[in-house]
C-alpha cells in the first residue's frame, strides 16, 4: 500500500488534498503518513516516515517545490516519487514531461488525483525522475537557495546566504557557516559555475562568498615539499566576516580578489 506525504505551506490546500485522498481510498488504497508545511520539516518527515509518494506544492515561500524535489533526489535511496501541485498551469506546461512525472492543477479533482497516483507508482527514485526534475529546474530558471547535506541519516538544508566559504578537502567539500562546518559531496568546479555571482575562487581548493570578504592581509602559508618536508611562504589571505579563519589567495586569483576589495 503506497505511503503518501502532503507538502504545502497553506493549511486549506493540505486539508483539501487530505479530503480527496479519503474520497479515493476505495479506488486507490493508500496510507496518508503526514503533512508538512515547509521544506526542512518535509525532509525530516521523509527521513522518519519513508513515504513512497510526495504531493508537493510548487510555489512555497523560502523554497520552491522544484528545489525541494531536487534535494529529495539527492537522498541515499533516491527519494520518493513526486507529484507536483500547482495553481499555475504555465509552470506545469513549461516544465514537466508527464511521461516521467505528473502534476496536478489546483483546484485538484479526485479522479485526476487517482490517475496521477497510479502513474507515479513506477518512477520512484528512478534516473528518469531525477533528470525530469533537473530539466524542470532549468526550464523554470530555479536557482538553488540551499545546499543539501547528508548528516546522521538526514538531509539538512543549509541556506546559500549563510555559507562563508567552500573548501575542497579529499573527496569532500567543507562548507563553513558562521556557526559550524558541514561536509558536502560535490565538485568545487560545478559549484563555482552554479554560484558564479555568489562565490569567488581565491585558491584552486576554495570558494569564498563575495559578501563575506571584508579585506586581505599578509600571512604565512604552509606548502608541501617532498624533498625537504613542509615549507612556508608568505601569501595574501582573505579576512572573512564572522569567522577567524584565513584562506590563502593564490597568485593566479590575486588580481581578481584585489579588484573585489578595492
Number of strands: 15
CATH class of the largest domain, please? Alpha Beta
> CATH architecture of the largest domain, please?
3-Layer(aba) Sandwich
Radius of gyration: 22 Å
Task: Explain what you see.
This protein has helices spanning 11-23, 39-49, 65-72, 89-95, 110-120, 127-139, 188-194, 254-261; strands spanning 3-7, 31-36, 53-57, 81-86, 102-105, 146-151, 154-159, 163-169, 172-177, 181-184, 199-203, 206-209, 213-223, 231-240, 246-248. By secondary structure, the protein is of the alpha/beta class. It has 2 domains: 3-139, Rossmann fold; 161-261, LytTr DNA-binding domain (OB fold (Dihydrolipoamide Acetyltransferase, E2P), Beta Barrel), CATH 2.40.50. The strands form 4 sheets. A 5-stranded parallel β-sheet has the order 2-1-3-4-5, sandwiched between helices. The longest helix has 13 residues, at 11-23. The radius of gyration is 22 Å and the shape is elongated. The model has no long low-confidence stretch (mean pLDDT 84).
